[in-house]
Amino acid sequence: MNLLFTHAGTFPLAYDERLLDALLRTGHAVDYQCREGWCGSCRTRLLQGTVHYPHKPLAHLNAGEILPCCCQAASPIVRLDCERDHRLGTNDLTKTSHSSDGCPR
Ligand code: FES
């Protein structure tokens, strides 16, 4: 299982999950528009790891930047320069806690 690291924590990535989908699923603040690699609005700094683009994006990228809308993790760990969207509150959207009877809540 590949892991996504951000300034907000560590999150497991689903198989073949696009990084933008993972960031949004886990409540991160990330801009996006086209979701297809041509507008560049989702540009994010890659701090560690490598990514794979199933289709070559058209948007310009500077060194160290990726387009999370159209790439997937290509290494066990991908670390991105992203923060949690604080408008969503303090609830952790990914960690599953369990009650004393073992059921997820
Ligand atoms: S949302 Fe347009 S390039 Fe990622």
Automatic annotation (TrEMBL):
Which SUPFAM superfamilies does the annotation name?
2Fe-2S ferredoxin-like (SSF54292)
Chain ranges passing through the membrane: none
Q: Which GO terms describe its molecular function?
A: 2 iron, 2 sulfur cluster binding
Boundaries of every 2Fe-2S ferredoxin-type domain copy: 11-73
Pfam families linked to this entry: Fer2
Entries under InterPro entries matching the protein: 2Fe-2S_ferredoxin-like_sf, 2Fe-2S_ferredoxin-type, 2Fe2S_fd_BS, Beta-grasp_dom_sf
Q: Which superkingdom, per the lineage?
A: Bacteria
Q: What is this protein called?
A: Ferredoxin
